[in-house]
């Protein structure tokens, strides 16, 4: 036994002496020409090795390679296909005798790879991947069927190979796609990977600088990775991704951050899971728990998503999106959301949706499907004040009775667009919205409900209902959005509502009381308020009962007219001035923004009224005349209509604008009418007297003639 051990030791010493001697005598640099010649024969490329080649043999057998480069394919310029400043590869010598590879950290420095594709779609590595064309005549033994070689499993490979790590420093990868006219450079690539061994945490760090025509990004990624022996399961611990990105389409730089304590990937089961992943960009902070199955075939997502409170207005500003100044400067300054996510990229369900926007709380669900499929949205909102979000100045410009805003930066600019055509034409969806309380154009409503369908730019709203002012409003609406315009039509029905209260909220002036019923249908085109008003067409019916018109006293005007007829001093106006209206009815036709009415009829306790005229909605101008006849006891008793009453009509002219209306009784016309009537009456008296005198004279003359 001792003799056997001595023999083994002697052989080992002899082997070491041989290796050392070989290392001293052998110089690999003397074989550069042969190496380059072999590469030339095998690839057709020129290999240049200006740097030194050194070998080590014990205890590590290794290669230390200096600067080296390989030429590009023909037709791809003079720049080398690949070049490298330094390569170091070492493995334990004694482990090789045990048929195991125990490699030290592989170090690659200054690697530069130039990848390209020409206009014909041929890449500069195609010639390196083409199979050999040489054919050999098979020998008799080769013609015999051989059993297929058994592929080594990942476990067997990893069992035979141990790599202490990988380090790549100052690498650069260039991509030039002439066919797609795209150039990408990834430079300053630094990669560090710890010992590659299954079941242990392996530090993984990489950072690089990506340059493209529209993108300039610096990225850093680090994580501790554990992988299984079969290379199917990967766990990522304490993952952190940071970046600094400049996009040509955005002025600000982006700095998104991604963090996760644990992410798990199973290639065999095609699953990805994380119980905690945080993404932040500026003042946006997103937290998610996410699971993905069918990862490589048809990804299916299941998780929750939380976006912490942020300022939407600041976010828009950061992304260079200009939002119009709103009526309320605090609008769009606070938002947050929570939802559950389940489904694929082609059918995504959002449930348990909770959205806080300023003072409004939204809850509901949604289903997203890519166009042309139809998505669904179902939301319930506790309360919302639409007026807060209207562009500054729009509310005053569209509300009668409001003073025009003074010139300022926010009101002298271009008129805001009300209808976003791009958004409407890009949505196919069925929506159902409910709002507990809503304020719009200073009017207040409750139990707002709208069901809408949108498909290829056609939006149908049916029904639209809401309660307010002692009534329930019903409406339907259709909107056709094209690339350049919007076409809108609809109808509206509101019965027995408190019109005075609504007008008071809308205009800020208390002018009317009474129960009003109104039906209307309309159509218009445009994307701005002025266009919608100018192109408005439709019809309208209106009824009022048991009403009071404030600010105008019809009975007082009767007394003034009576005083003028009797040449007395007109009486003073009562306080308050108001006119009781027992009933009122009217219909109108709207054409190109002008409302025309010809059949207004109203009854007060002491008068009957008819009216006709126009209201220019687009220009906000009034041109209307109401004719009043004051009633007598007989008229009241027999309920005579306006046309059969004998009293003199008093015309009341309503002119001016919505903001400055003028209401003036035309006493002069009434007096002229009365004078003409009196003249006719006197003329009739004279004619009757002359006739009687003539008849009497003729009679007397006849008596004389026939007297005997």
Describe what is shown at a glance.
The protein is an alpha+beta fold.
Say how many strands there are.
36
Proportion of strand residues = over 45%
Radius of gyration, Cα only, in angstroms?
46 Å
Shape: elongated
Helix content: 10-25%
**Mean pLDDT across residues:** 83
Task: Please render the helix and strand layout as text.
Elements: H1 2-25, H2 32-43, E1 47-48, E2 53-56, E3 60-65, E4 68-70, E5 82-84, E6 86-92, H3 93-97, E7 101-103, E8 106-109, E9 112-117, H4 126-129, H5 140-143, H6 154-160, E10 161-163, E11 166-177, E12 182-193, E13 202-212, E14 215-227, E15 233-247, E16 257-266, E17 271-281, E18 284-293, E19 300-310, H7 312-318, E20 335-344, E21 347-357, E22 360-368, E23 375-385, H8 394-398, H9 421-425, E24 429-440, E25 443-455, E26 458-468, E27 471-481, E28 486-498, H10 499-507, E29 512-525, H11 529-534, E30 537-550, H12 554-565, E31 578-591, E32 594-604, E33 607-616, E34 621-630, H13 633-638, E35 650-657, E36 661-665, H14 667-705
Parallel strand pairs: 7-10, 8-11, 9-11, 23-24
Antiparallel strand pairs: 1-4, 2-3, 3-6, 4-5, 5-9, 6-8, 11-12, 12-13, 13-14, 14-15, 15-16, 16-17, 17-18, 18-19, 19-20, 20-21, 21-22, 22-23, 24-25, 25-26, 26-27, 27-28, 28-29, 29-30, 30-31, 31-32, 32-33, 33-34, 34-35, 35-36
């Amino acid at each position: 036994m001792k003799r056997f051990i001595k023999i083994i030791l002697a052989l080992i010493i002899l082997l070491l002496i041989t290796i050392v001697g070989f290392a001293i005598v052998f110089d690999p640099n003397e074989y550069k020409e042969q190496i380059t010649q072999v590469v030339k024969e095998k690839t057709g490329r020129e290999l240049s090795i200006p740097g030194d080649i050194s070998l080590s043999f014990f205890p590590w057998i290794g290669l230390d390679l200096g600067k080296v480069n390989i030429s590009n394919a023909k037709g791809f310029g003079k720049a080398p296909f690949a070049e490298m400043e330094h390569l170091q590869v070492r493995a334990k010598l004694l482990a090789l005798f045990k048929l195991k590879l125990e490699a030290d950290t592989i170090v690659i420095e200054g690697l530069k790879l130039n990848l390209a594709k020409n206009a014909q779609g041929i890449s500069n590595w195609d010639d390196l991947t083409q199979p050999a064309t040489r054919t050999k005549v098979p020998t008799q033994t080769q013609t015999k069927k051989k059993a297929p070689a058994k592929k080594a499993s990942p476990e067997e490979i990893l069992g035979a190979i141990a790599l202490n790590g990988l380090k790549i420093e100052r690498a650069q990868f260039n991509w030039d796609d002439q066919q797609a006219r795209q150039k990408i450079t990834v430079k300053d690539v630094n990669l560090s990977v710890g010992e590659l061994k299954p079941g242990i945490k392996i530090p993984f760090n990489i950072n690089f600088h990506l340059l493209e025509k529209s993108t300039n990004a610096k990225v850093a990624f680090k994580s501790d990775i554990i992988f299984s022996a079969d290379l199917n399961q990967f766990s990522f611990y304490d993952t952190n991704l940071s970046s600094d990105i400049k996009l040509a389409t955005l002025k600000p730089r982006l700095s998104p951050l991604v963090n996760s304590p644990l992410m798990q990937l199973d290639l065999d089961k095609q699953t990805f899971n994380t119980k905690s992943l945080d993404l932040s960009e500026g003042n946006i902070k997103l937290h998610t728990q996410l699971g993905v199955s069918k990862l490589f075939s048809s990804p299916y997502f299941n998780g929750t998503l939380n976006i912490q409170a942020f300022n939407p207005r600041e976010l828009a500003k950061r992304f260079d999106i200009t939002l119009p100044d709103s009526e309320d400067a605090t609008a769009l300054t606070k938002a947050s959301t929570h939802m559950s996510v389940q489904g694929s990229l082609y059918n995504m369900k959002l449930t348990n949706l909770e959205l806080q926007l300023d003072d409004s709380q939204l809850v509901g669900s949604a289903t997203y499907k890519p166009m042309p499929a139809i998505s669904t949205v179902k939301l319930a909102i506790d309360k919302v004040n639409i007026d807060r979000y209207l562009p500054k100045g729009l509310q005053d410009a569209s509300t009668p009775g409001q003073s025009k805003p003074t010139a300022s930066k926010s009101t002298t600019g271009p008129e805001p667009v009300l209808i976003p055509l791009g958004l409407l034409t890009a949505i196919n969806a069925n929506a159902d919205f409910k709002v507990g309380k809503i304020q719009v154009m200073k009017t207040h409503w409750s139990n707002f409900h709208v069901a809408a369908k949108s498909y290829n730019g056609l939006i149908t709203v049916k029904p639209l209902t809401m309660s307010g002012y002692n009534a329930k409003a019903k409406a339907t609406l259709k909107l056709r959005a094209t690339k350049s315009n919007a076409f809108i039509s609809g109808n509206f029905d509101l019965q027995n509502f408190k019109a005075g209260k609504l007008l008071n909220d809308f205009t800020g002036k208390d002018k009317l009381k009474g129960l009003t019923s109104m039906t209307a249908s309309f159509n218009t085109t445009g994307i701005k308020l002025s266009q919608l008003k100018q192109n408005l067409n439709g019809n309208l019916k209106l009824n009022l009962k048991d009403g009071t018109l404030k600010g105008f006293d019809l009975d007082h005007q009767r007394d003034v007219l009576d005083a003028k007829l009797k040449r007395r001093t007109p009486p003073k106006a009562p306080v308050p001035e108001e006119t009781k209206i027992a009933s009122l009815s009217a219909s109108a036709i709207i054409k190109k923004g002008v409302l025309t009415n010809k059949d207004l009829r109203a009854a007060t306790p002491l008068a009957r009224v008819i009216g006709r005229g126009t209201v220019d909605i687009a220009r906000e101008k009034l041109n209307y005349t109401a004719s009043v006849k004051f009633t007598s006891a007989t008229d009241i008793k027999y309920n005579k209509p306006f046309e059969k009453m004998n009293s003199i009509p008093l015309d009341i002219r309503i002119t001016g604008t919505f903001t400055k209306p003028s209401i003036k009784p035309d006493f002069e016309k009434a007096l002229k009418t009365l004078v003409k009537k009196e003249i006719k009456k006197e003329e009739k008296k004279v004619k009757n007297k002359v006739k009687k005198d003539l008849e009497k004279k003729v009679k007397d003359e006849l008596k004389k003639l026939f007297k005997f």
